[in-house]
Write a structure and sequence with these properties.
mainly alpha; globular
């Protein structure tokens, strides 16, 4: 039987993932020093919010929002920095996996929750511009966005 994960266990895993991302970003030549400083503040805030949440947010469901916020962008990112982040996350045995949310939604033919809705909304145009999805897939995703909103 699988042991149920506690909030603290999950939060510590998230902090380890954030530390990996922060290490990669700080060593990267892709980001300017000013941008690195802002990102470092953001990483520290995410870690603080996960380790010391307000009582009403001390739930794994709340922690998933932070995970999606931080890790979501790295799922779609390309290049050596993103590859290093995901390789190290896997090497350390953390429970996070790189996934193509747009492909998952297209295969399922529906948006299942607010996280996916936000992700599709934020990435549909970029994915089409980068030729990761076709015009037809963009139209299908747009229809799914409208259906999720009840239109």
């Amino acid at each position: 039987m699988k042991k149920r994960q506690t909030y603290d266990e999950r939060a510590n895993q998230f902090v380890r993932a954030v530390d990996i991302i922060q290490t990669v970003v700080m060593a990267s030549m892709e980001f300017q020093d000013a941008h690195k400083a802002v990102m470092k503040q953001g990483f520290e805030e995410m870690k603080r919010m996960s380790l010391n949440p307000e009582p009403q947010f001390r739930r794994i469901a709340s922690l998933r929002y932070l995970e999606e916020h931080v890790l979501g962008g790295w799922s779609d990112a390309t290049g050596p920095d993103a590859d290093r982040v995901w390789a190290e996350i896997q090497k350390q045995g953390l429970p996070y996996h790189r996934k193509d949310v747009l492909a998952v939604v297209l295969k399922r033919k529906r948006i299942k929750d607010q996280h996916e809705f936000d992700y599709v909304t934020d990435n549909i145009v970029i994915a089409e511009q980068e030729n990761r999805i076709t015009k037809e897939q963009a139209v299908a995703l747009d229809a799914m966005l409208m259906k999720f909103q009840g239109r």
